[in-house]
Write a structure and sequence with these properties.
5% strand; 7 helices; globular; two-stranded antiparallel sheet; mainly alpha
Length: 168
């Protein structure tokens, strides 16, 4: 279990989505497999579909998942290396407005997500238990490397649940 002092209360909703008794890397592998298996063979008519006006298209959702994992991976790396610099937040809506994902091939987005996840897995395999407990500050909140590792899977599962409920 990730102790509550290792993440902001906002992230509780996400952390409940994974088995924290499992090693971080197991969750990373499992959530990526399910994400890819669910999205890989969707009909092309769904790729640019948004379930409601003002909501992200499926392509934008996948790009958002990629972008968030990249931002959080940078945070995990900084904290793991004991960089005490307070890191800024990021505005997911500005990222999405400027990502040009709707003009990309859906398969390319899924392949990029796979590569990003493989990179995250390699990074977390390199961390010792001591490193996982290191804490830094991002978006004015304390966060441990361990919490970030679980959040990658949680965030992906959260969005996959939305896909299943509202896009399929």
């Amino acid at each position: 279990m990730v102790p509550k002092n290792e993440y902001a209360p906002y992230f509780e909703q996400y952390l409940q989505l994974v088995d924290q008794g499992k090693y971080i890397v197991e969750n990373l592998i499992e959530s990526q497999k399910e994400f890819d298996a669910t999205l890989r063979n969707l009909d092309a008519s769904k790729h640019n579909f948004a379930y409601e006006e003002g909501k992200w298209s499926l392509k934008e959702l996948v790009q958002h998942t990629i972008d968030t994992e990249r931002v959080f991976t940078y945070r995990a790396l900084c904290f793991a290396r004991n960089d005490k610099t307070d890191l800024p937040g990021f505005d997911q809506d500005i990222f999405t407005q400027n990502d040009d994902s709707n003009s990309r091939k859906f398969e390319d987005l899924l392949n990029e997500m796979k590569v990003v996840r493989e990179s995250s897995i390699a990074l977390f395999k390199s961390f010792s238990d001591e490193v996982l407990e290191r804490i830094g500050v991002a978006s004015n909140n304390k966060m441990s490397v361990r919490a970030l590792g679980y959040l990658f899977s949680c965030h992906q599962i959260h969005h996959l649940n939305i896909v299943k409920e509202r896009y399929l």
